[in-house]
Write a structure and sequence with these properties.
By secondary structure, the protein is of the alpha/beta class. It folds into four domains: 1-97, 3-Layer(aba) Sandwich (Rossmann fold); 106-110 and 279-292 and 303-367, Rossmann fold (3-Layer(aba) Sandwich), CATH 3.40.50.12670; 113-165, no CATH class; 182-258, no CATH class. It is built from 14 helices and eight strands. The longest helix is centred in the first third of the chain and has 18 residues, at 39-56. It holds the Pfam family Peptidase_S10. InterPro entries: AB_hydrolase_fold, Peptidase_S10.
Length: 367
């Protein structure tokens, strides 16, 4: 498997994975002030990091450069592209060859937009009835987030809606709703020797905590990731700073962060006006976290003409990988449908991130 992916990356692209903001992954800040960050600060910090990285690695400067991300980074990536473009125009060096654009998977763009579209997604996917959807549209006026509690009809309808979807795993609605508590990653720190007796200890830890996802769950890998990431041999191989504390998959509570980009759409507009940048937007068609209907809605609000209308894109001559549409501003929207090449994932549609559909995502990336 390692050889396969190494060969793929050498043939297709060099990929730089950036842990941002400071405090995510194995990254850290040396001072309290450096740790304090925000959406907009991240944009400037990433631009500064990239230019510094290219100074140290000038052999990559001539390569076409793409920026990519998924989920919440949908608010960050278009801002990074704009910042890089502005820096290039000002003559900052080294120049970054950003002409080729950026790619986003299941991107968040505007506060409350995505939650509001979960209702329409639930209806399109058959999770709620026609009657309930019509009632919600009529009584809530298309706004299903932070609803006025005095609107009893809307509140009652939303209660019925939440009862219908309460046992749905919203990152991939076809999967079992296995509860996953990311704090469980810390359990790896309580085990005495995870390197020498991992199977026994994993079994004991499952027996001790009924809230752990069982091995049959897709989310069980998130629990296992903490054992791998906190293993000293792994850290040594990755060159992680000695004395670095516990790694956790979602370190949202320990980073002093300000969410100050409430609408990323203007970044997309500004980037499209540059003419040389294109944007690819990808949505898993079974993701309820950032539903494809929300991405469709904000793209439609830009009023760009369609140059290549809705059509399937193919994995093979007889297998549809998803559907796509291209707009005049060099923006392409594509969905990820399903795969039958992996036995465990044989019946799954596209989920919230690329991990649910690696074959389609790698093929799309290569194209």
């Amino acid at each position: 498997m390692c050889n396969m992916y190494t060969q793929f990356f050498f043939q297709v692209a060099n990929i730089l994975y950036l842990e941002s903001p400071a405090g995510s992954g194995y990254s850290y800040a040396k001072t309290r002030r450096a740790a304090e960050t925000s959406d907009t600060k991240q944009i400037h910090q990433i631009d500064q990091f990239l230019r510094s990285w290219f100074v140290d690695h000038p052999e990559f400067i001539s390569n076409s450069f793409y920026v990519g991300g998924d989920s919440y980074s949908g608010k960050i990536v278009p801002g990074v592209v704009q910042q890089i473009s502005l820096g290039n125009e000002k003559g900052l060096t080294p120049l970054i060859n950003i002409q080729q654009g950026y790619v986003l998977g299941n991107p968040a763009v505007r506060t409350n937009l995505e939650p509001n579209h979960r209702v329409s997604f639930a209806h399109r996917m058959g999770l709620i009835s026609d009657e309930l959807h019509e009632s919600l549209e009529r009584n809530c006026g298309g706004k299903f987030f932070n609803v006025d509690p005095s609107n009893a009809k809307c509140s009652n309808g939303l209660l019925a809606y939440h009862q219908c979807i309460s046992e749905i795993y919203i990152e991939q609605i076809l999967l079992p709703n296995c509860k996953v508590d990311y704090v469980l990653a810390d359990i790896s720190q309580t085990l005495p020797n995870i390197r020498t007796s991992r199977r026994r200890e994993l079994k004991e830890s499952r027996n001790d905590s009924s809230s752990l996802p069982p091995p049959s769950c897709f989310t069980y890998r998130y629990f296992l990731s903490a054992f791998w990431a906190n293993d000293e041999n792994v850290r040594r191989a990755l060159g992680v700073k000695k004395g670095f504390g516990k790694w956790s998959r979602c370190n949202t509570q320990n980073i002093p962060y300000t969410y100050d980009i409430h609408n990323a759409i203007p970044y997309h507009v500004n980037n499209s006006l540059k003419c040389y940048s294109f944007c690819i937007l990808i949505n898993g068609d079974h993701d309820m976290m950032i539903p494809f209907s929300s991405t469709e809605a904000w793209i439609k609000s830009l009023n760009y003409s369609i140059v290549d209308d809705w059509r399937p894109w193919m994995m093979t001559s007889n297998q549809v990988a998803g559907y796509t549409r291209t707009y005049a501003n060099k923006m392409t929207f594509a969905t990820i449908k399903a795969t039958n090449s992996k036995p465990f994932l044989s019946s799954l549609g596209g989920g919230h991130t690329a991990e649910y559909n690696p074959d389609q995502c790698s093929l799309m990336f290569k194209r």
